[in-house]
C-alpha cells in the first residue's frame, strides 16, 4: 500500500508500507530533497511512529496540531 501526502505549500511525502527485515512490516516516508535531487527515505517500525514523524515533517512549528487523513479516491 502507498499514499502521497501533500500540503498547501506543495510539499509532498510518499508513504509506503513494505516488509521489514524481521518478517513484520515497516512504514517508509520518502521525500525528494531538492538540494541534492535525491529521495530521502526514513523507516518506521509502527504506523503510530510514522504518523508522529509525518506530523513533525509537515508542521514542525505546530506540534499541538493533529493529522486529519482523508481520501480523494472513492472506495478507500
Automatic annotation (TrEMBL):
Protein's name in the database: Uncharacterized protein
Lineage of the species this protein comes from: unclassified sequences, metagenomes, ecological metagenomes
Amino acid at each position: 500500500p502507498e499514499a502521497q501526502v501533500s500540503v498547501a505549500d506543495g510539499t509532498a511525502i510518499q508513504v509506503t508500507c513494505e516488509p521489514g527485515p524481521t518478517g513484520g512490516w515497516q512504514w517508509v516516508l520518502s521525500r525528494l530533497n531538492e538540494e541534492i535531487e535525491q529521495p530521502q527515505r526514513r523507516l518506521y517500525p509502527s504506523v503510530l511512529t510514522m504518523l508522529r514523524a509525518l506530523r513533525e515533517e509537515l508542521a514542525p512549528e505546530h506540534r499541538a496540531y493533529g493529522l486529519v487523513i482523508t481520501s480523494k479516491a472513492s472506495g478507500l
